[in-house]
Amino acid sequence: MSDCGDSNRRAGHFACLILARGGSKGIKLKNIKALAGQPLIAWVLRAAVDSGEFDSVWVSTDHDGIARISKEWGAQVHRRSPHTSRDQATSIEAVQEFLIEHPEVKFVGQVQCTSPCLHPSHLQRACHMIRNMGFDSVFAVTRRHLFRWTETPVDKDVSTKAENLNPAKRPRRQDWSGELYENGSFYFSTRELLMDGLFQGGKVGYCEMQPEYSVDIDTDIDWPIAEQRVIKFGYFGKTKPQGVKLVVFAADGVLIDNQINFTATGDEFRSFSRSDTIGIKQLRDKGVEVRVIADEDNDVTTKLVARLGISMLTEAKSKVDRLNEWRKELDLDWSQVAFMGRDIPDLDCMKTVGIGGAPCDAHSDITTTAKFVAKAAGGKGAVREFCDHLLLVMEKAKSAAENRKI
């Protein structure tokens, strides 16, 4: 496939559409289940929004929770009808329903929610092929070097014969270009093809994705594999090269647990995780400023921050205002600030910072807004998970900056 330039650019509204029904059978509500700390759907939404190629980004769903999280990650929501939400409904039916309600859309990039290693560059290439190279449909493929055999029944026995090789002349991998397989990450098509019931037709093109980015999740078995893959190859967003410089933790329910315990003599005690203190130390070793905001004075928190050697503010009337003061003091952009909170008083901070985190037992409004949700509860390892995530984001930002210099 050769690039024919931009002289024949096709005009028309280009929509990204993600089908995310609430009735997943393999994994319950998998579209919003946390993968590497973020809702599964968030990984593809971030890639779609950051690609800058689409006139609109939509999630087609019948579920309130999926709709709410999709909006938080920058998508508009198309409410699916009961007909296209049933188990027997096909993807083409759902896409056609969307197109009927949106006659302005001329091109659709249907992106699979279960492909969390998708990057903006993958989508940019496909959009370019539709817009500028005259293709009517483009889909994602992965190259495989697999020898295929077919069953050939003979009487009561089953034998086999080769389909794509001569067994007498087995090619070496380096001498064989392999074969292209759909990997399901995305299907781009014109409105006309889709209304005719086709995802592929007309002038058909493909975008090859390397195997490390070709991840699909269907069953529980796929989940841990996908999580490890996305940590290494996933797209973490447009983080600035200098990365995160200020991390602030709410004290109650984050740095210390959310329980108040009393001894037989009436003394109050609360607990924290030693693992969390190690995570904070690792951030500080990377030159990150770490601070704490507490709702009230507490002996446990006071002693903990003193041990860590970090600053703490108590009884702040407006946490986001204080956060803004710290940001200005350190001359930072909001994108360089991270915050981990647990309850409604933390919500404004979560919505303002570059990266918001939450323990798994945080209020539902907090976990919906958060860009990272830990598997652990507050005071029991959630802070360490968030620290590890931030260190990973910083490392990826550093690598991206070095690649740009090259």
Question: Helices, strands, pairings?
Answer:
Elements: E1 13-19, E2 34-35, E3 38-39, H1 40-51, E4 56-61, H2 64-72, E5 76-79, H3 82-85, H4 91-101, E6 105-111, H5 120-132, E7 137-144, E8 149-154, E9 157-162, E10 179-190, H6 191-195, E11 204-208, H7 222-233, E12 246-250, E13 261-262, E14 268-269, H8 274-285, E15 289-294, H9 299-308, E16 311-314, H10 319-329, E17 337-340, H11 347-352, E18 355-358, H12 364-369, E19 372-373, H13 382-405
Parallel strand pairs: 1-4, 1-6, 4-5, 7-11, 12-15, 12-17, 15-16, 17-18, 18-19
Antiparallel strand pairs: 2-3, 6-10, 7-10, 8-9, 13-14
Helix pairs in contact: 1-5, 8-13
Describe this structure in words.
- The chain has helices at about 40-50, 65-70, 80-85, 90-100, 120-130, 190-195, 220-235, 275-285, 300-310, 320-330, 345-350, 365-370, 380-405, and strands spanning about 15-20, 35, 40, 55-60, 75-80, 105-110, 135-145, 150-155, 155-160, 180-190, 205-210, 245-250, 260, 270, 290-295, 310-315, 335-340, 355-360, 370-375.
- Strand 17 (about 335-340), helix 11 and strand 18 form a beta-alpha-beta unit.
- The chain is built from 13 helices and 19 strands.
- The protein folds into two domains: about 15-145 and about 180-235, Spore Coat Polysaccharide Biosynthesis Protein SpsA, Chain A (Alpha-Beta Complex); about 245-405, 3-Layer(aba) Sandwich (Rossmann fold).
- With about 400 residues, it is of the alpha/beta class.
- The two termini are about 25 Å apart.
- Helix 1 (about 40-50) crosses helix 5 and helix 8 (about 275-285) runs parallel beside helix 13 (about 380-405).
- The longest helix has 24 residues, at about 380-405.
- The model is unreliable at about 1-5 (pLDDT under 50).
- About 35% of the residues lie in helices and about 25% in strands.
